Amino acid sequence: MVIRSITFTGSSPSLKLCPPPDHPEYAFTGRSNVGKSSLINMLTQRKNLARISSTPGKTQLINHFLINDAWYLADLPGYGYAKVGKEKRRSFRRLVTEYVLERSNLMSLFLLIDARHPVLANDHAFMDFLGNKGIPFVIAFTKTDKLSSNEMQKNLRRFREKTLERWEELPPLFLTSARKGTGREEILDFIEKSNEMFKKS
Questions:
Q1: How many domains does the chain have?
Q2: How confident is the model at residue 55 (pLDDT cuts 50, 70, 90)?
Q3: Are strands 6-12 and 62-67 parallel, antiparallel or unpaired?
Q4: What pLDDT is recorded for position 56?
Q5: CATH of the domain at 17
Q6: Torsion angles phi and psi, residue 164, rounded to 5
Q7: Quick one: angle between helices 149-163 and 121-133, nearest 10?
Q8: Per the confidence metrics, is the pTM higher than 0.85?
Q9: 54 pLDDT above the threshold of 60
Protein backbone atom coordinates (compact mmCIF):
# COMPACT_ATOMS: atom_id res chain seq x y z
CA MET A 1 0.00 0.00 0.00
CA VAL A 2 1.22 3.46 -0.88
CA ILE A 3 -0.04 6.23 1.40
CA ARG A 4 -0.76 9.20 -0.84
CA SER A 5 -2.86 11.42 1.39
CA ILE A 6 -3.62 11.87 5.08
CA THR A 7 -6.32 14.16 6.42
CA PHE A 8 -6.74 14.89 10.11
CA THR A 9 -10.50 14.77 10.67
CA GLY A 10 -10.64 15.73 14.33
CA SER A 11 -10.19 14.85 18.01
CA SER A 12 -13.27 13.42 19.68
CA PRO A 13 -14.07 13.30 23.42
CA SER A 14 -16.91 10.82 22.80
CA LEU A 15 -18.00 8.22 20.29
CA LYS A 16 -20.91 10.29 19.04
CA LEU A 17 -18.51 13.02 17.89
CA CYS A 18 -16.31 10.66 15.87
CA PRO A 19 -16.45 10.88 12.05
CA PRO A 20 -19.29 9.00 10.35
CA PRO A 21 -18.51 5.25 10.12
CA ASP A 22 -18.39 5.36 6.34
CA HIS A 23 -14.91 3.87 5.84
CA PRO A 24 -13.11 0.87 7.36
CA GLU A 25 -11.25 1.85 10.51
CA TYR A 26 -8.16 0.64 12.40
CA ALA A 27 -7.49 1.78 15.95
CA PHE A 28 -4.24 1.80 17.93
CA THR A 29 -3.90 1.59 21.70
CA GLY A 30 -1.72 0.09 24.40
CA ARG A 31 -0.10 0.87 27.71
CA SER A 32 1.15 4.41 28.11
CA ASN A 33 4.69 4.88 26.79
CA VAL A 34 4.46 1.78 24.56
CA GLY A 35 5.59 3.72 21.49
CA LYS A 36 2.17 4.24 19.90
CA SER A 37 2.89 7.65 18.39
CA SER A 38 6.22 6.48 16.99
CA LEU A 39 4.57 3.46 15.37
CA ILE A 40 1.78 5.55 13.82
CA ASN A 41 4.34 8.01 12.46
CA MET A 42 6.38 5.13 11.03
CA LEU A 43 3.37 3.52 9.36
CA THR A 44 2.26 6.77 7.74
CA GLN A 45 5.81 8.03 7.11
CA ARG A 46 4.84 11.37 8.61
CA LYS A 47 7.31 12.50 11.25
CA ASN A 48 4.87 14.37 13.48
CA LEU A 49 1.46 12.97 12.57
CA ALA A 50 0.99 11.58 16.06
CA ARG A 51 2.69 13.68 18.70
CA ILE A 52 5.53 12.02 20.55
CA SER A 53 5.96 13.03 24.16
CA SER A 54 8.15 12.00 27.06
CA THR A 55 5.01 12.25 29.20
CA PRO A 56 2.95 9.03 29.12
CA GLY A 57 -0.77 9.48 28.60
CA LYS A 58 -0.47 12.39 26.16
CA THR A 59 -3.32 11.16 23.95
CA GLN A 60 -6.53 12.02 25.78
CA LEU A 61 -9.04 12.04 22.92
CA ILE A 62 -9.77 9.82 19.92
CA ASN A 63 -7.79 11.27 17.03
CA HIS A 64 -8.93 10.32 13.53
CA PHE A 65 -6.95 10.44 10.30
CA LEU A 66 -8.45 9.64 6.89
CA ILE A 67 -5.88 7.77 4.81
CA ASN A 68 -6.05 7.87 0.99
CA ASP A 69 -9.69 8.97 1.31
CA ALA A 70 -10.31 5.26 1.88
CA TRP A 71 -9.81 4.27 5.54
CA TYR A 72 -9.52 5.73 9.00
CA LEU A 73 -6.65 5.43 11.43
CA ALA A 74 -7.82 6.06 14.99
CA ASP A 75 -5.31 6.99 17.70
CA LEU A 76 -6.86 6.00 21.04
CA PRO A 77 -5.85 6.95 24.58
CA GLY A 78 -3.50 4.46 26.21
CA TYR A 79 -4.06 2.70 29.49
CA GLY A 80 -1.99 2.02 32.59
CA TYR A 81 0.39 4.62 33.99
CA ALA A 82 -0.21 8.24 33.08
CA LYS A 83 0.40 11.47 34.95
CA VAL A 84 -3.29 12.14 35.36
CA GLY A 85 -5.72 11.59 38.22
CA LYS A 86 -7.79 8.48 38.81
CA GLU A 87 -10.97 10.10 37.48
CA LYS A 88 -9.22 11.03 34.24
CA ARG A 89 -7.94 7.47 33.85
CA ARG A 90 -11.46 6.20 34.39
CA SER A 91 -12.73 8.57 31.71
CA PHE A 92 -10.08 7.23 29.30
CA ARG A 93 -11.26 3.69 30.05
CA ARG A 94 -14.91 4.59 29.51
CA LEU A 95 -14.08 6.32 26.23
CA VAL A 96 -12.07 3.41 24.85
CA THR A 97 -14.62 0.84 26.06
CA GLU A 98 -17.50 2.71 24.41
CA TYR A 99 -15.47 3.04 21.23
CA VAL A 100 -14.45 -0.61 20.82
CA LEU A 101 -17.93 -1.91 21.68
CA GLU A 102 -19.93 0.43 19.46
CA ARG A 103 -17.76 1.66 16.57
CA SER A 104 -19.50 -0.20 13.74
CA ASN A 105 -16.78 0.25 11.11
CA LEU A 106 -13.89 -0.93 13.31
CA MET A 107 -12.12 -3.62 11.31
CA SER A 108 -9.36 -4.31 13.81
CA LEU A 109 -7.86 -2.92 16.98
CA PHE A 110 -4.06 -2.89 17.14
CA LEU A 111 -3.04 -3.65 20.71
CA LEU A 112 0.55 -2.47 21.17
CA ILE A 113 2.87 -4.24 23.60
CA ASP A 114 6.46 -3.29 24.42
CA ALA A 115 8.54 -6.26 23.28
CA ARG A 116 11.20 -5.61 25.91
CA HIS A 117 9.03 -6.43 28.91
CA PRO A 118 6.83 -9.29 30.08
CA VAL A 119 3.20 -8.84 29.10
CA LEU A 120 1.48 -7.37 32.15
CA ALA A 121 -1.81 -8.32 33.74
CA ASN A 122 -3.64 -5.29 32.33
CA ASP A 123 -2.57 -6.28 28.80
CA HIS A 124 -3.95 -9.78 29.28
CA ALA A 125 -7.10 -8.38 30.92
CA PHE A 126 -7.71 -6.11 27.94
CA MET A 127 -7.12 -8.98 25.52
CA ASP A 128 -9.62 -11.11 27.44
CA PHE A 129 -12.15 -8.28 27.37
CA LEU A 130 -11.76 -7.93 23.58
CA GLY A 131 -12.02 -11.67 23.06
CA ASN A 132 -15.09 -12.04 25.27
CA LYS A 133 -16.82 -9.22 23.40
CA GLY A 134 -15.84 -10.53 19.97
CA ILE A 135 -13.80 -7.44 19.05
CA PRO A 136 -11.32 -8.18 16.25
CA PHE A 137 -7.79 -7.30 17.30
CA VAL A 138 -4.14 -7.99 16.57
CA ILE A 139 -1.00 -7.68 18.67
CA ALA A 140 1.83 -5.38 17.57
CA PHE A 141 5.03 -5.79 19.55
CA THR A 142 6.92 -2.49 19.56
CA LYS A 143 10.59 -1.58 20.04
CA THR A 144 11.84 -4.95 18.78
CA ASP A 145 15.12 -3.33 17.71
CA LYS A 146 16.00 -3.04 21.41
CA LEU A 147 16.26 -6.83 21.72
CA SER A 148 18.51 -9.53 20.33
CA SER A 149 16.89 -12.23 18.23
CA ASN A 150 17.21 -14.71 21.11
CA GLU A 151 15.63 -12.29 23.58
CA MET A 152 12.77 -11.60 21.18
CA GLN A 153 12.06 -15.28 20.68
CA LYS A 154 12.18 -15.88 24.43
CA ASN A 155 9.64 -13.12 25.06
CA LEU A 156 7.41 -14.36 22.26
CA ARG A 157 7.51 -17.89 23.65
CA ARG A 158 6.57 -16.59 27.10
CA PHE A 159 3.70 -14.58 25.60
CA ARG A 160 2.38 -17.56 23.65
CA GLU A 161 2.51 -19.87 26.65
CA LYS A 162 0.75 -17.37 28.91
CA THR A 163 -1.91 -16.50 26.34
CA LEU A 164 -2.67 -20.10 25.40
CA GLU A 165 -3.48 -20.84 29.02
CA ARG A 166 -6.77 -19.02 28.36
CA TRP A 167 -7.04 -18.85 24.56
CA GLU A 168 -7.49 -21.62 22.01
CA GLU A 169 -5.37 -19.75 19.48
CA LEU A 170 -3.31 -16.59 19.32
CA PRO A 171 -4.47 -13.39 17.63
CA PRO A 172 -2.38 -12.24 14.64
CA LEU A 173 1.04 -10.92 15.69
CA PHE A 174 3.24 -8.23 14.18
CA LEU A 175 6.82 -7.43 15.19
CA THR A 176 7.57 -3.73 14.76
CA SER A 177 10.30 -1.18 15.17
CA ALA A 178 9.57 2.48 14.55
CA ARG A 179 13.30 3.21 14.26
CA LYS A 180 14.00 0.53 11.64
CA GLY A 181 10.60 0.49 9.92
CA THR A 182 10.10 -3.16 10.81
CA GLY A 183 6.57 -4.43 10.31
CA ARG A 184 5.35 -1.52 8.20
CA GLU A 185 4.67 -3.43 5.00
CA GLU A 186 3.11 -6.36 6.87
CA ILE A 187 0.68 -4.10 8.75
CA LEU A 188 -0.26 -2.10 5.65
CA ASP A 189 -0.82 -5.33 3.69
CA PHE A 190 -3.07 -6.56 6.49
CA ILE A 191 -5.06 -3.31 6.36
CA GLU A 192 -5.32 -3.44 2.57
CA LYS A 193 -6.73 -6.98 2.66
CA SER A 194 -9.15 -6.02 5.43
CA ASN A 195 -10.34 -3.06 3.37
CA GLU A 196 -11.28 -5.46 0.60
CA MET A 197 -13.37 -7.43 3.08
CA PHE A 198 -15.12 -4.20 4.12
CA LYS A 199 -16.05 -3.50 0.51
CA LYS A 200 -17.59 -6.95 0.15
CA SER A 201 -19.59 -6.76 3.37
A1: 1
A2: very low
A3: antiparallel
A4: 45
A5: 3.40.50.300
A6: -75, -5
A7: 50
A8: yes
A9: no
